[in-house]
Every structure is written in C-alpha cells, then in structure tokens.
C-alpha cells in the first residue's frame, strides 16, 4: 500500500518528478462537497517552489485538472482523480548522476530494492510527490471545516538553531518562511543567503496544529490518532522525528507536571497535545516535526557508483537550501488527511453513539499560541 | 483496524486488563517456524511487572497457551492464536474511579468515543495489552534472526534527566532498568525510591536498534519503513515522540554534516538511522522513543466525573513510577513486528529482484554502541 | 488476510478441528450492543452436527466464552473475542490418513502451499471453522435487526435432484433439513437413509434472503454488495457456485423480461435480487448457493500418498452425507457479516446524505416466498 | 475500497463514461516488467465496442498513455498510472434521462446512496470502467505468463438459449462473438439481427479458464482463490452468477462422481475446477459467469422520476443487445488480476517453502476443451 494513504478516505498518488505528469485518486470521498479546479490554487501556491529566492528555482505551475468524481461542481462519491502535467522538468540536470548513488538520497536504497531506478529528478522519491498530498488535502480540509469546524494551521518553528522570538499566526502567511515573528524575517533572509553562498543546507522544525477536533476521534490500540499522525508526518520526505504535545520534553517531566488537570470549565494545560489513549480530547492537536537538511549540495561528498567504485558527488541541480521551509503546507496536508480518515472511521463504528458524557471545553490548551 | 498491526504479518490482540484473558491472533505467519509454549517465557518475563520493586507490584504470570496454528512443534501457516488467562486482577482497586475521568488517562476520551467503558484496570487501554505484542514478536524475532540474521536490541537511554555515562550492551540485561551503564544502577535505585516516596512519576527515553537488516526493506512513499516504525512506536501507551537516526538533532545540522558519506568500504556515519527514502540502507536501524510519566499518582489532581462535576482524583492502585522502564521489550517487539511485515511485503513485490548493485557494508554506523 | 472477513466489521477466526479450541475476534464492532453468552446458543445449535441422524454423529457442545469486548452485558467498542473449547475431538479416527492426499479435500493443496499440514480432522480446513462464522454473525444479526429491521433467513432449496413442492417459512425451522415443505420430510429421510446405506453423498442448494435492507448499501465498482456476497458464500467450504437474483437463468432471459419495472407503488419483480449496480435497491436480497457433495466416503477412491505413490482412500470418520443441510445457518451468517460490513462502510462515506429521492416500496419482489 | 481491486497488486480505477478521461493506478507492481504503450492495443481492441455491428456503435479509440512507473521500457516498482482520454462521448444522448430512474440500472440505487449522480452515459456505473480492468490486466498477464507460464483464455459459452455445438479455441478469436464453433457464426448473426430489430436484448454465459497455475496459490479460509474469483467476476457489470468447476451441477452430483480421483499420473477429472480448499490444485482453473441482458432497450418500461412520479422509460442511446459478448476479455482480465494478486500473496507468506511433496500432473482435467 506504499502509494496509498488512509483506510477510508484513501489517497493514492502517482507520477515521477520528471515524468509526463503527477496525479492522485481519492477514493471514499463523501459526496456533495463543492469542488472546482480553482480550489487548489492557494494551497498549491503555498507549497510551490519558486515562491521566493529561498526555495528551489524550479517553476511549478501546478494547474490541476479534475478527471473524475465531480459533477456540476460537487463530489459524487466516485473517486476524485486529479492530474498535473509536468511542464518544467529539465532532465538534463540529472543525467550526470544517473549512475551515482548520492549520499543522503534514496538512490542506493531504491536500487537495492527494485534493481532499477528512474533517476530523473529523484523520480518517485522527489518531493514533487507531495504536491498531490496538498491537493488531496484541499478536499479533506473543506469537509473538516464545513462539517466539524476543524481548522488546521502550521508554521516553521526552528531553522537551524534559530527560534521564533514571538508568535503571531497572522505573520505566518505574510513571509516566505511561514515564520511567526515578522521582525525576524530580515535575519532569516540573511541566514539563508549565507547558507546558499556556502553551498550548504540546514534542517528545520515545523509545528502543525488542529483546532476544533471533537473528542472521540482516533482508535485506542494500533490505529491511535497520534500513531496515525506519526506515520503521516514521517512519510514526508526528509522527516526524522515526530512529537505529539510535550513530545521528548515528557522524558524529563514529572507526572504531576505532565498530566493535564481537568475541570468543568476546561483542561488546565495540554501536554498531551490533544490525544489521550489514542483518541482526541477535544483540545488542540499539537504536532512537531523534524526535517533534516537536504543532502543535495554543491559541496562534494564521497559516494559510490553503480559498479561499486568510489566517486565524488556534487549536486548542481535546483534545490532548496532548507527543505523544511515549504514543508509547512505538506505537514498541514498530512494532518488533514489523517483527521479526515479518522473522522470517517469514527463515524463507521460509533455513528450512533450519542453525547453520553458532558464535554469539557478545550480550555487553556487552546489559547491562540 | 484498531486492534490489528501489520498488513501481511497481521497481529490482532484482544482482552482487557481485568477481563478473563488476553490474547492475540497472528495471521499470515510463514509456515515451518519452530514454536513451543516455552519460547515466550524469556521475553514475557522481561516485560512483566513484578520484576523488581521499581515496577508495579502486580504479579503477572503470563503463561501462554497456543490455541491454533502449530502442529508437531512448528507453525503451519494457519493463524497462530495465543492466550494468557488473567489471574491476578484485583478489580476492587478500581471500583472507586469507575465514575471519574482521570486526567492523563483514556477514561474521558474512551467515554466520548464509545459512550461506555470497562473501568477495571484501564480495560483495553491498560498496558496489559502490550503483553501480547511481546508474545507475537517472539515469532517475528525468530524468523528475522533465522532467515536474515537480524538482531533487535533496546535499552533505556534516559530517565528524567539522568543519562547513561557509558554504553555496554552486556550490562543492559543485568539490571532491572535495562540501563547500559552498570555503575549507575545504585544511583537509579535511589532515584526511583525517592520518586516513589514523593508519590510522583517520571518520563523516560528508550533506544531500540536492529542490526543485520538487509538493504531494500521498506516502501518509498506512505509505507516508508520509518513511517511504519513511527506508527508502531507511537501506538505504545504513553509514547509522545519518535526519532529515526539523528531525529530532532537534524534540525540544527548542516547538510554537509548530516548526510552519510558512502565508500566502497562502508558508510562513514549513520545520521539517517539506517533508512533513506523510506527504505533500509543495510546499516543499523536506529530509533528513539519518548515515554511520558504515568498519570496514575498518589498526588491528587483536579478531575471531572461522569456528570461533569469537579472531583479530586487520587490513584491508589499498583502502578509503575516510570512506565518507560519496562517499555524496552515492548519497543523491541514493535520494531520486530514492523520489520517482519516489511520483509514479507518486500518479498511479495520484489521477491525476484536479484542483487543488481554492489552492497555497501554497514560501516562505522554499525559500531557496537 | 486469509482468516479475516470484512473491512470494518472485521471477523478473524482461528483454531483447528482437533486443536484445543476454536475462536474469533470481532474488531470494529459498534459499542452498546447487548450481548450474553446465551445469545449464541440458538444459532450454534442450528449449525451443530448431531442435530439429527442425517448429519455427522460428532457431538459439538459449542459453549461460547466471551473473552473480551463486553462489559456489564454490552459491547464496548473493544474487540469481541469468543472461544469454544474442542471437547469431542477423536484424533484417532484420522491418524490413518495423515500420509494420504484424499481426493476432493484440501490435503494436497495445503501440503503444496505450506509444506506442512495438521491432518487431525481436516485441521484448519474443517467445517468446524464455520462455527465461529455463525457465532460472529449473532452480533451482526442483532445490530442489523435492531437498527435497521433487517431479517435474514435461509432454507434448503434442493438436495440432489429433489426440489421443494411448496414454500412455507414456518416449516423450515421445524425439520432437520431446513426444508420449506413439511410434507416432503419423510421422503427426504428415506432419501438420506438410502444414501447413507450406499456409502455415498450428494450436493445441495441453499437459498438465503435478507428483507428490510434499505436502498443504498454496497459500493459501485469492485466492492459491490453482490461481489461481497459472492466472495462470502464462496468462502464457505464445499461451495461451487453463487447466484444473485435470477442468477444463471438470466442467460436465457430477454431484457424486457429481466429488468424489474418500477412504479411509485413498488417494483414489479425482483430478478435483480435486490442489487443494481452493486448497491441495494430496498428489495429483498436474494442469493442461491451450490454445495458439492462431500468427498469423505466409505466408497474407495484412487489417491496418492506423501511419497507420490498410488493408494486407495477410504474414509471412515464421522461425516455428513449432505454437507449442504447444515450449511443453511452458515449462509445466513455470511450474509449477515457482509451486510453488517457494508452498512458500516456506507455510514462512513455517506453518513450525512439525507433522503434526497423518494423511496420506492419493495413491492412484489418481497412477497413472502 | 470500492474502486480498488487486489491486496498487493492493487488496481485503482477512476473516471466516468463521459468525463474527460478514464484511468487507473496499479500499485505494488513488481519491477522489471517490459511495458510499452503499444502493449495495450490488442486486448483493448478485443474489448472495444465498435468491433462489429453486434456491439454498441460508439467508437472507443482507447489510446493508453503511461503516466508513471515505467522507465526506459520497464516497470520500476513505482505505481503504474494509465490514462485514456474520452473522445467520443455524446452527452446529448443522455440528457433526457437525467431525471429518470431507469429500471435495471444503477440510477435509483446510486441516487439513494449518494444523493447525487452523474447521468452522462451511466457515469461511473458505465461498462466504460472495465476498459481499465483490461488495461491493468495486460501487466498481470505478462508477469503470469513470463514467470509461471500461466495462460488465461475465455469464450462465450451461451447466448440466450444457444449453446456451442463444438469447441475449438482457435475459432474463438476469429469471430466477433468469441464463439468456439465457427460454423455457428451465421446463425448467431441472424439471431442478433432479429434481436436488434425487436428492440430487445439477451443474456449470455462466459467461460474463462487458466492453464499453468501451479498448486498452492490461494488461501484456505476467507481469501480462497475461488472466493476471490467469485468477487472478481461478480464485480463486473451485469453479472448475476459465478460457478467454479462443476458449479451448480454439483447439487445433483453424488460424491463418488464429483470428487476427482488422483493418481501419480494425474487427476482423473476436474469437477473441482482447479481449486480445493481455496487453493489451486495445479489443474486448469475453470470459471463460468452469467451475464444478464442489458436493460437499455427501445421497448418502453415503467419507471419513476426524481420526484417519485411514474414515467415511461425508453432508451435510445447506443447499447449492445448482448453485453455478454464483449465481456469475455473482461472476465479474462479479472481472472488475471486475481491470480496475480494471489501469486504475490503466496510469495509473501510461503516464498521459502520448497517442493516438499510430489506434484501430480494436471491430468485429464486439462484436456484442451
């Protein structure tokens, strides 16, 4: 099921970075969701490279064609198929490395697995694939917002060792770094320029949250909501770590500090990150994701070729010095896809469970930070 | 699929903490694996409570009965069913809290989801469930070791803010903390005694590694090996974070530092943690897992009852002051189950791909640390 | 997924005919269904051998123990696990044939697949496994009846070349043949006695119907309701054919005859068998199932042994001369399991689709025949 | 999973009859299979309408574009995506019936399920969808033939009440009816002309067989090979019945007649149809499928409209008077997809089971009839 995400809201993606097209099929989509091709523009633009000089110079126009599943402006319950033609795929940039295993890439592992590899632009392992995750999530976000009032937002929470000095959600969409402190943007630009000049790259941390998720979504054992989120985030290229709520900080916490007291007026804190026992509490869902620095550098590195000989690998193609920057919309997309799937799974099993216990307000954990 | 783990080597667990029994069914198990009831003893003892005074005082005898799938000492390809009767379930300890939502537990979320809850000992949400993960993994570990020479090991890597001062795999099995520095054991005992006296608890970090995994296991997009490991670990009770390889440290790394150089003699490092593009590299698989401190404390906390009234919650049952301690065998089990499943999935799709590219030795990344 | 049936209401069975026990785990069960161990008695008795002299003489007591998923008399949403100990398994009857491949049995194919086989009573391939299908379906039938008014009934529709001369549902449960014409029972008893005396066996046809299924269950392409029913029925031991509605008679029908006219007062006929385009019409679901005659006969037959030598195979164990007779409750069970699963899948995707078009009464197709 | 077939070789189709395109994604495809766009031509032409005056007059050019998963002429292990643009979709033919529920069609059921429907040419419920089944099966047939020598063939076995008088596989591909007796072709042409003149339609039976399937494919309980075939065939539009081997004739057979004797030189017969206990025997796989007559007729019939009013329904679009005729390649395709999936599942679980028992030749059951 490598290319499918979800059990009931099932997104199957296809296409290589430099093949004729990329696309996806969304099976199990509820009928009656209004959908037009223009609905994809905003989120795809947020993810697209070429948005600023700090991300890869490749221009992705990303015009989505709806091939299936929509009639007179609404989903029909049939599979929704989306297609984007690849228009700016300069394969010549990649010819030189077709016979090299680049360190830090999937070249070697793909070859060992399949005995064959499409080397053009990373083929199927390119971040180009994530375009369709964002496109598919447009549907999920719509349904979640309209039926349940769920709102999903993300921002960059660290680049290298730079941390935000303040938090303002409004700032996030106003700068090319999805950074929550507008005042730091010049500093980040200087940081990125220096990085690019050095030929090196750096990692990043993305925080993504969902507000408005009702209590009860998720499943208690293997299909926990947090387990699903962990898989969803770790399935994004370059991710090396996932935290829910307090995450690794829990290791040094005392139980009396970590557990979130409950009162009739709301929870007192949200170290749990909105999930207890794998099921949503009604508080904000909190997720933090670590992105490694890209391995595609102008700086040379020891590598090996197809014949097992040592080679020096230098990457000259177009690459982001910090892949984490444009990962923010991708993390949002994966949270939307996981929540959508859990919502349908919850409805399947528990669709007739009424409100049998009082709901506790999200409380302080949902403060707008 | 809440109670099933795996796509091809499918483990379905059942049973509540204080019900008549717990058990599991393992479907898709390869035939011909030697198996006897005694094979479960060692791993279940490692996980069992009652192993030292630092874990819960409940005695779990955990005698496994094989109900299905084994004939004349070997698996037949039929589902392997395992059963453990619950013998020391003192339900009276839990009666008082049947009408309370304990902060930090699944009480509230389970109630909101299902409208009903088995309150005896945490019911299905108890860590008792993990016994069957360890039992099922006995089969996976056997097959992985015999067919592929895979070896899976774990140890505690942090309790609260205490870190190991040295690393010795031999020490790990010699002390009740799975701690890799024997000299620190008296210090840890004092730490735990003070913690117990205070009525509080603390978090922990577990490190689990697999050596001998061949290159090529895992899938490149959603079913990445690391995504599967993240879900596997996050599905364990009390886990709040998962890292692969360098994990969150990648955020502050430069690409020139993070990417693992490759030479014909081996990899130069293993920041990737043995996975690139979702597929194993042949290096050690490295995973780090954060456990929160248990919320079951003698110290009172604000809670809410079934009617929405404020209550003071105090837990008096038997509970580990650090649930992370005995999580080490559980993390090993989940890594075994994920690797086993990926191995079968790899064989299904790529069973006839020969060795088409030279294999690079695991190299320095597999040093015995 | 060989031992699991269903996508959302997932039934996993385990156990061999002569092993210590058989059982099942039902995952995804809606919470709040009243359930006690006595609820299984009636349906298991209907399926049990030993009910009359016309079915196998083995006594199956089939006392069900509920191991999981029920608290204070109702399902909790946790997996429901059921266990039946095998008490009357005389393995000595089967020792002689352990090294023979019996024609018409799974001996040879199981051996070729797994390289090993539990020969005691057919092991996992015994009809004993179907006991748990009937047990699991008790839950499905309850939910379908209580939430949707669905009623599932079956009867024997042919034994050898004997057909019912009349149809009376009340008669079906009054005779050991599930036969709808009480007047034919003496004739059937004589037929079966002669058959037993001859050492031979005969095939049968079972008809199973569901009334009260609302329009809209099922899925339009691969997961059609009729495709699911076909797989469900064909998964029962000894089944060789499945028909929906007019079935094979459609081959010789004209379109003007087959298509079921629709009027505001109801459908004019039900050649479709209650399914159009894979989705229920609201009419009676009609299914017909062909059972082959058992191959376990006193009459000798050419066979082969483990070494590839010719042998004469004679079966002396306890076997039904017409396995189709007690298949009626099993067919009902499989229809219940498929409908239950489709109902949950429908709710997941379309739970918020209102009644947007007028419902057409079931009409003449639902006449009580 | 409505639009996906298979567990490991997973085919997901999309597109409506009169939408912009139809397509499919094949996930889990083994790498290294040679594939070019021309490989689809022959099988798609066999399925295409417009092949003779006896099938619908709509011209389907069916030019396949490979969008993903193939590099330098071979599959890479990435998802294979195929696309066919719809070029001859005259929606005007269907406008009149957009507000009518046509008897015998999915109009009413789709509306009850989804509350919305794409009425153009049957939308997703059109047989147009089966084009992609045939395309996907091209890959499966190639792999099955090359790796295992499996050969899959089908023919029409009955139209209305006309039966073949002789059997010649070579004749099948020489006439537009896939009919095994060349001498009857003029008779069939006259039959179809009379039928078309009358405005009516008729049902048909298709037989499809696979030779060369090794013993051991299939699974013993719910995922039986025959259960999978039954679902596969019943998922084709207009199918009302499926038989394996002797099928419904088994009902009147004696056990001494039905069971297929085994000798070291081969099986004596093949009433089982190549499957025992859900697992292949090594004999020919035999499957028979009943197709209903199409309900799209010039002859008027009682129907109902969206408002629940009685209407007279007359169909004037282009429709086959016997949809079963061009179903032959579709039945072959579904058998190929099921066998491919079972082959991969078998390899996953039992890939290291050697030949532990002697293989019995297919014997008389595989005679070329």
Number of strands of chain A: 18
Mean pLDDT of chain A: 92
Count of helical stretches of chain A = 8
Oligomer: homotetramer
Give the ordered list of helices and strands of chain A: EEEHEEEEEHHEHHEHEHEEEEEEEH
C-alpha termini separation of chain A: 37 Å
Question: Which regions of chain A contain 5 or more consecutive residues with pLDDT less than 50?
Answer: none
Calculate Rg of chain A over CA atoms.
21 Å
Largest interface: A-B, 120 and 120 residues
Structural class call of chain A reads: alpha+beta
Largest sheet of chain A: 5 strands, antiparallel
Structural shape of chain A:
globular
Helix proportion of chain A: 10-25%
Give the neighbour order of strands across the main sheet of chain A. Answer: 1-2-3-7-4
Q: DSSP strand (E) fraction of chain A?
A: 15-25%
Pick out its properties.
homotetramer; alpha+beta; 18 strands; globular
Describe how the helices and strands are arranged.
Four copies of one chain form a homotetramer.
Chain A: E1 4-5, E2 10-14, E3 21-27, H1 41-47, E4 65-68, E5 70-71, E6 74-75, E7 80-85, E8 100-101, H2 107-114, H3 130-148, E9 151-159, H4 169-172, H5 185-198, E10 204-211, H6 225-234, E11 239-244, H7 255-258, E12 262-263, E13 266-267, E14 275-276, E15 279-280, E16 285-291, E17 301-305, E18 310-313, H8 328-350
Antiparallel strand pairs in A: 1-2, 2-3, 3-7, 4-7, 5-6, 8-17, 9-10, 10-16, 11-16, 12-13, 14-15, 17-18
Helix pairs in contact in A: 3-8, 6-8
């Amino acid at each position: 099921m490598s290319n499918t995400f979800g059990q009931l809201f099932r997104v199957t993606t296809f296409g290589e970075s430099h093949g004729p097209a990329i696309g996806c099929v969304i099976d199990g989509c509820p009928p009656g969701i209004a959908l037009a091709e223009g609905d994809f523009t905003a989120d795809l633009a947020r993810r697209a490279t070429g948005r600023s000089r700090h991300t890869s110079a490749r221009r992705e126009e990303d015009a989505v064609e709806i091939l299936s599943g929509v009639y007179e402006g609404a989903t029909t319950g049939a599979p929704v198929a989306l297609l984007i033609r690849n228009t700016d795929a300069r394969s010549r940039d990649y010819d030189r490395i077709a016979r090299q295993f680049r360190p830090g890439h999937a070249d070697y592992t793909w070859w060992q697995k399949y005995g064959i590899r499409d080397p053009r632009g990373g083929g199927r392992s390119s971040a180009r694939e994530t375009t369709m995750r964002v496109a598919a999530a447009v549907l999920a976000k719509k349904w979640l917002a309209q039926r349940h009032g769920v709102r999903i937002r993300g921002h960059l929470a660290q680049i290298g060792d730079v941390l935000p000095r303040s938090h303002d959600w409004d700032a996030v969409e106003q700068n090319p770094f999805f950074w929550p402190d507008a005042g730091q943007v010049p500093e980040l630009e200087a940081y990125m320029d220096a990085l690019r000049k050095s030929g090196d790259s750096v990692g990043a941390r993305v925080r993504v949250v969902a507000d408005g998720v009702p209590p009860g979504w998720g499943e208690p054992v293997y299909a926990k909501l947090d387990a699903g989120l962990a898989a969803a985030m770790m399935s994004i290229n370059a991710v090396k770590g996932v935290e829910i709520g307090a995450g690794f900080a829990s290791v040094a916490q005392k139980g009396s500090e970590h557990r979130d007291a409950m009162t009739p007026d709301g929870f007192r804190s949200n170290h749990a990150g909105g999930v207890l026992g794998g099921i949503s509490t009604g508080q904000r869902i909190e997720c933090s994701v670590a992105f490694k620095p890209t391995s595609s550098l102008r700086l040379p590195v020891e590598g090996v070729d197809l014949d097992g000989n040592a080679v020096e690998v230098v990457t000259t193609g177009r690459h982001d010095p910090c892949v984490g920057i444009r990962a923010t919309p991708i993390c949002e997309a994966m949270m939307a896809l996981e929540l959508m799937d859990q919502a349908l799974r919850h409805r399947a099993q528990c669709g007739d469970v009424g409100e049998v216990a009082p709901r506790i307000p999200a409380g302080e954990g949902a403060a707008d930070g």
